[in-house]
Write a structure and sequence with these properties.
Elements lengths: L3 E7 L14 H5 L7 H15 L5 E7 L8 H16 L5 E6 L6 H9 L2 E9 L3 H6 L6 H13 L3 E8 L6 H14 L3 E6 L7 H7 L8 H17 L3 E5 L24 H28 L16 E7 L4 H5 L4 H9 L3 E7 L8 E6 L1
Parallel strand pairs: 1-2, 2-3, 3-4, 4-5, 5-6, 6-7, 8-9
Antiparallel strand pairs: 8-10
């Protein structure tokens, strides 16, 4: 997918009829009222002033709530402003997020008239038990029907999944990822669940009815879901919330130690890199043992005063992932394979996120 620069317009949950246990939209968007026309234009113009010459495709995106749940007149008002920039060629596309149960043929016709290209659905889970316990107000069949309507109408589909909701499990997370692949959206987002002040989920936590994921659990689930989506060719637009998405820093305390990290995507991609590199090293050592006994033992280095060297090659943009966040992978490999020196080198010809291990005697 060609790289895009997003111009975000945050619209609060006006019109949303549900009260999901995890949601406190005012804290996510830092807004208490709908933005005025002047505010919308100012936001777009400010972003354009720095992005017009970036060489990226520019996209206006309505985030922060269920856009198609707000009053129809308000939808049309915001869309008409955005369409002015689209018609002038200042942006290439329009993008919005909404709920699966706020999609209909009539809504899709409206969005098409205004030039909307991408519709993201806050799916959260395909497990009906999880949806019910999270008070989503719909089941997974509603999700599938909405996704199919969006694709049939010619829009690009996005699916957002939340990890660690009430009733969730490793198995249900994998199920949700596999169900997402069946629908083949253009893009996906993976969000480990956060416990925010003012939400029902916070009350469930305080009464012991909900236990947040540990860091290990959050990484394990997200990593496997990421792998499933990436292997299917689905563009993963976001993993975890950015610090700028959460306004009240008090919400980032002890409760969310497992599921929030400002570089959560890097943690996930670093874990995937570690697994791929380790698999290659182990295969390399197995072949070495099987094919070259005359060279002496390679598992202790006692017969050779010089350590052999393992070289991990990757694209320059993947170097930090290979080494791991704050060098955690580099340290891991050094401890796991003490009989070798470990080196990292850049190789432009390798795709981002792909790694190659070689051995130098």
């Amino acid at each position: 997918m060609k790289k895009k620069a997003i111009i975000p317009i945050f619209v609060p949950h006006i019109g949303c009829t549900e009260s999901c246990v995890f949601c406190d939209q005012k804290q996510i968007t830092a807004r208490e009222k709908a933005p005025s026309e002047e505010e919308v234009r100012k936001t777009i113009d400010t972003w354009l002033s720095t992005l017009l010459n970036s060489g990226e495709e520019l996209e206006i995106a309505f985030y922060g709530g269920s856009f198609t749940a707000i009053p129809l007149s308000m939808q049309q008002h915001y869309l008409s402003i955005a369409k002015e920039y689209l018609d002038k060629g200042l942006v290439s596309s329009l993008h919005l997020s909404t709920r699966p149960d706020c999609i209909s043929p009539e809504i899709l016709d409206l969005l098409k008239d205004y030039g909307v290209k991408t519709i993201e659905l806050g799916v959260q889970s395909f497990d009906d038990k999880v949806l019910e316990k999270s008070k989503r107000g719909h089941n997974s069949d509603t999700v599938r029907e909405a996704c199919q309507m969006i694709k049939d109408a010619g829009f690009d589909l996005g699916i957002q999944l939340m990890i660690g909701l009430p009733g969730d499990s490793y198995e249900s997370c994998i199920y949700s990822a596999n169900e997402t692949v069946k629908l083949m959206p253009k893009l996906a987002r993976l969000y480990p669940c956060l416990v925010l002040q003012g939400t029902e989920l916070m009350e469930m936590y305080r009464t012991g009815d909900y236990i947040p994921l540990s860091r290990e659990e959050a990484l394990s689930r997200t990593k496997e879901m990421y792998r499933i989506l990436e292997d299917a060719g689905i563009y993963i637009m976001r993993v975890g919330l950015k610090s700028t998405d959460i306004i009240n820093s008090k919400n980032l305390g002890e409760i969310n130690q497992g599921t929030y990290h400002p570089a959560f995507r890097e943690l996930v991609e670093g874990e995937l890199a570690k697994e791929e590199i380790q698999s290659q090293i182990d295969m390399l050592l197995t072949r070495k043992k099987d094919n070259s006994k005359v060279e002496g033992s390679i598992d202790s280095g006692s017969s050779n005063p010089h350590k052999a060297r393992l070289v991990i090659s990757c694209h320059p943009e993947s170097m930090s992932l290979a080494a791991g966040h704050e060098g955690v992978n580099r340290e891991y490999f050094a401890k796991r394979y003490p009989e070798f020196t470990i080196g990292f080198q850049k190789e432009e010809t390798l795709p981002r996120g792909r790694y190659k291990v070689t051995m130098d005697s």
